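Hi F.,

I've been meaning to write this up properly since the lab meeting, where we talked about keeping a consistent format for the predictions we share between groups. The idea is simple: the sequence comes first, exactly as it goes in, then the structure tokens exactly as they come out, then a line or two of notes. No screenshots and no reformatting. I'm using this chain as the first example so we have something concrete to point to.
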Amino acid sequence: MSETSDFQQIQKQSLEMTLKQKASQMQVILGQLIEMNDDEIKDRIEMELDDNPALEEADSSSDDYNNDNDDDTSNSDDPFDTAFSQSDDDNDSDRNDDGLSFIQTKRRQGIDNDVYRPPVVNEASMYEVLMSQIRERDLDERQLLIAEYIIGEIDDDGLLRSPITSICGNIISKENEFVTPQEVEDVLEVIQDLEPAGIGATSTRECILLQIEDMKGVNIDIAQIAHTIVDKHFEEYERHHYDKILNALNIDEETFHKADKIIKRTNPRPGNIFSSGERMSNAVHITPDFVVTNDDGTLTLTLVNDIPELQISESYDTEYKRIIKRAAASDNATDVLIKRQYERATSFIEMLKMRQEKLYNIMKAIMLKQQEFFITGDTMTLKPMVLGDIAEMTGYDVSTISRARQNKYVDTNWGIFDLKYFFGNSLDDSDTSATAVKEIIKGLVENEDKKKPLSDEKLCSLLQEKGYKIKRRTVAKYRESLLIPVARQRKTL
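Output, unedited:
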């Protein structure tokens, strides 16, 4: 092989590697965008608009869209127009091949704040919120016991200031269970992965580091510098000895200010959203990401799209085309910067479009799977459904489905629901969803005689009388996941 061929082969391999790295980075950013809720995505767009002059809001408005055919194509220039937001006909309805009510779909570009009021959701205590999350993790009974003690030691700031050895001692003395410091540290690592980010950190420094690592939609290189500042130079940072940090990291002031901006976005006291174990406000407003309405068996799905329409700046578009027309590649710094900003802007617009389409298709699949519930509002009609079911229906990865359901809500004729509500394993391989059985348990407890509350054994017996093959251990597990105390703790005089 000649030297020329060798050089061409090296160039080809280098190009392939660059393209793979760029595709991988785009996948990471897309995953972050999918996980963001309505408020977070608007903040992310504002940040991108501030950082990239090639990107701007489109100076146009559009009406609501809907269509009845996912295979249609669109000639619209709207970067958010996809197969689900094209027709102007709101009145068509039909039946699909499965005999199900045909699903009409549309996109709503904003909410009239004079008409729409976000639903109010009651919040539980910090302990309850964290325990609810930890029960969703794949932990055994021993690990759950350790988690209870760790969470019980987290202070109002959201930090764990008790030594690991002290927690070990408490478990040994109170539960007569010998646990090692390593076991406690392993469970603590799981707790530190819960929400809000930074919870369970053992110091302010660690709390900030955890939040930087969890931060979405930031420049990866700048985030790494911010991480290094906190990790290696936290004392100098606290004392405002910024010159020492600049010299140590060999960075300029502009880069430092960008990193400092990321650090200042963190909350060194993540527990301060709670007050004495309770939320600062007993109710918070939540803007749903989807709206599903039922009109005589015909379901309409709306992706609430309260984000601005974006476009490439006309001056950047003109300049970019001029650069591309040149025969030879330009090493001019200005040209390189313009190309980079232009390509970043186009990628961001494309990823937003992909986010909207994926979120819509995932919610549509959930609606198809749980269609009877959306029509009747009867919890007992919920079907067993896991992430893999929706992944199979949409063709997306399980990780994409998992991200899409994070912090997302759907407003229905029957109330507002967290998307996680619709996911649940089957009860002993039956067609009954665990979510439906939990609702029965909740109802039985709400209507019980508080002087003689129902034990897990009695709850199990009542469920079996209703035809559900369920074990007492499963009843106890479901009761705990609902944050319902044991019978003796529910008893009143």
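Notes:
Residues 420 and 445 are 23 Å apart (CA to CA).
The radius of gyration is 27 Å.

If this format works for you, I'll send the rest the same way.

G.
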